[in-house]
Amino acid sequence: MKVILCPSCNSNEYESLYPKYTGESVTSSFEVVKRATLDNRLCKECGLIFNARGVRDFAEEFYSETYSLMLFSDDAEVQSYTDTGPVSQAEYSYKMIQEMVGISGSGMLLEIGAGKGHFLRHFYSNHSEWRLTAFEPGMAFEFLKEQLSDVEMYQTDYQGFTLEENAFDLIVALGVLEHVEQPLDMLRWANKGLKQGGKFFIRVPNFEKNPNDLFCVDHLSKLTVPTLHWLATKSGFEISASKGVGVQLYLVLEKKGIEDGKHPSAYKENRVTADKNADYAQKAIKAILSARSQAQKSKENFGIFGLATSGLFAPFIGKFDPSEITAYIDENKTMWGALVHGRPVGGLNFISEKNVKHIALTISPAYIEKVSAKLSIYPVKIYTP
Ligand SMILES: [Zn+2]
Predict the structure, then answer these.
(1) DSSP secondary structure code for residue 261 in this structure
(2) How far apart are CA 22 and CA 261, in angstroms?
(3) Phi, psi (degrees; rounded to nearest 5) at 300
């Protein structure tokens, strides 16, 4: 088999992380991939945590044929969980850009991986004097094309896009960097496209808050703050602002133009994160399996709270039929009515409606306390990692 080097520093020195797995797998937008390998590694040189296989094995086919960004409805989208409840990630990202970058007057914006155009719609309705360019490699492009006539747009990935150098004031990539095969390469590319002092605004899931991501086949890099600092310095950027909200991390990278700067390896800090997260991820699967076996024993229904990767992956790694799960319960309203693994997704009302008596929480540790408190008023047994 082909030797896979670290996608950021080309080192072949690594430590393997949980789980070692090949078989049916799940993606970040809730699709099932028939066969994929989870080969998570920690690079001993630069500290990048990455899946050496996953959709790397079939990336082109995956993004053109499988990765749907929830195309079953125009509104369906990933949401961010905040103190006041779930909010649209696109809308929230726009708010974060306003707060962290500040947008005024006119300028040139490029969005990488624009999905269904949710973010661009927010941006354009507030800044119609900006010139907008966007591209999207996946099936969502068809949606994008119909929705936004004022945007210059292309169906491609960043390698296929003809980038004008020093052209943009702002480049935006929301939920993209963790998907690309070579994150450092993409950052260097974006750096070229920006004017001096231009900003690259990114949103990525913070792996430190998201142990379930070890099961996700299309998040090829498991990004952490130390890794992002390393990557930014190596690609001629300086992180000028960063903000964590739940699992999401919002960063402003400012173009400095000093390429290949020196930055300490993220290995040491990421080693700690990797161990902690591998432990949590294993416990998350265990919680689901306990809920399932207790429900079986008492001939009652069991459900899973949260559309997190562990909850979708559990039937595969735990070798049970997804039809045993009575329902998925989630607070993201745009997912209500959808089917995941053929199982219905609904809100808290599902607990009584579907007579769910056992619920495993598969959400990020960042939300466990809050959700446990919320569920405490229901007559259900809760299983936490
Ligand atoms: Zn490396």
Answers:
(1) -
(2) 37
(3) -120, 175
Q: How many residues does the chain have?
A: 385
* pLDDT tens column, 191-243: 999 999 999 999 999 999 999 999 999 999 999 999 999 999 999 999 999 99
Closest Cα to residue 16, out of 34, 30, 37? 37
Q: Which of 96-100, 108-112, 120-124, 376-380 shows the lowest mean pLDDT across its residues? A: 120-124
Which residues have a beta carbon within 5 Å of ligand 1, which is an ion?
6, 8-9, 11, 43, 45-46, 48
What pLDDT sits at residue 263? Answer: 85
With 0.85 as the threshold, say if the pTM is over it: yes
**Which of the four CATH numbers 3.40.50.360, 3.40.50.300, 3.40.50.720, 3.40.250.10 does domain 270-383 have?**
3.40.50.720
pLDDT in tens, 103-123: 989 999 999 999 888 899 989
**172 token code pair:** 């935006």
Q: 78-87 contacts: CB < 8 A, separation 24 or more?
A: 78/29, 78/175, 78/332, 79/331, 79/332, 79/334, 80/245, 80/246, 80/247, 80/248, 81/246, 81/247, 81/331, 81/367, 82/245, 82/246, 85/331, 86/331, 86/332, 86/333
Token representation of residue 333: 């309203």
Site of tokens 């913070």:
206
Q: What's the 286 CA to ligand 1 centre distance in angstroms? A: 31
Q: How far is residue 194's CA from residue 191's CA, in Å, rounded to a whole number?
A: 5
Residue type, 311: G
Check residue 64 and report its DSSP letter. I
Q: How far is the CA of 327 from the centre of ligand 1 (A)?
A: 40
Distance 267 CA to ligand 1 centre (A): 9
**Distance from Cα 42 to the centre of ligand 1, integer Å:** 8
Q: What angle in degrees, to the nearest 10, is found between the helix axes of 225-234 and 267-297?
A: 140
User: The dihedral of CA 223, 225, 229, 230: what is its sign?
Assistant: negative
Q: At what angle do helices 309-317 and 267-297 cross, to 10 degrees?
A: 60
Where do the structural domains in the chain lie, given as residue ranges?
Answer: 270-383
CA of 227 to the centre of ligand 1 (A): 10
